[in-house]
Amino acid sequence: MIDSALTFMPADTEAHDPGFEAAGALAAPLAGRARRPIRISGGGEVRVGTASWTDPTMTAKGVFYPDDVSTAEDRLRYYATQFPLVEVDATYYALPREQQSKLWVERTPEDFVMDVKAHALMTGQPTEVKRLPKEIREALPEKLKEKSRIYGKDLPAEVLDAVWDAFKRGIEPLREAGMLGAVFLQFPRWVFPSNEARDLIVDAKRRLEDRKLTVEFRHGSWFNEKNAERTLRFLTEQQIPYVVVDEPQGFKSSVPPVAIVTSPELAVFRFHGRREDTWEKQNIPPNERFRYLYDVDQLADWAARIAEAARSAKQTHALMNNCSGNYGTTNALQLADLLEQYQA
After folding, report:
1. CATH superfamily, with its number, for domain 13-94+113-125+181-342
2. Which residue has the higher pLDDT, 224 or 6?
3. pTM summary value
């Protein structure tokens, strides 16, 4: 299905950035509402969660976590009592380690699910050389060792293979435990619709083997009048879930809110907020870029679309990426509450 009939009005900053205390008051009556997957009538399960559990504004005292939840271990354990799904963002910046994945498995229930963002080098984006594992740094050509940041396209084939292999090893404990939801391939705004780009996606699917992958684009041309049908057809033929996004419109990087299901196994929705003044602003932290609290009417529109998607996919993931303080967790609770009207 293709459906982009959402109304995007200019954001009222005050209404959508009321402060963490006000957001907490909205969340209080909904405590525990998103704790379990929601079975949609005539369809599959919907899991609701956030794209972080460790943002400094989220872990600040009195925002989301109880005062006695102060360690990394305790925060994940607590988060997993409130939501059945989370996105791991740190793997975009540094390749995952097996030991860390083992700890995630140990600290969460067996039915908990983690979606893991692909490392930057896997999607054509730059990474800091100093953050690569020692064995990969040492394998770099001398001219790349001297650089502070490198791109995957500049790597010798065997080094790029090593990056993919390290990533897969790092998430293997999640896969073995049945807790790996999908690997998120988030392509940058300079990746346009082309045969080369589509080949990159097919190659990623080959490399990930039996691990689910999803694709998120950061340029609206993938769904303009010329390319929309071809993009949809390509992803559907490959049975690769497309990450449906809600984000500010009117920018070259803006992808329209096209609600589509391209795989019978999984549908994914990510909510970036609609903060226009920070969307393409340089050198600001994510908790400022995505500092936006959705109102209930906005979420209700999406709840209907998510329920419809869940009738075409076995699993549906809805992730709030507006992870500034408790905005993401509050909206996740509200969305789960709205989805209950569609449950079996």
Report:
1. Protein of unknown function UPF0759 (3.20.20.410)
2. 224
3. 0.94
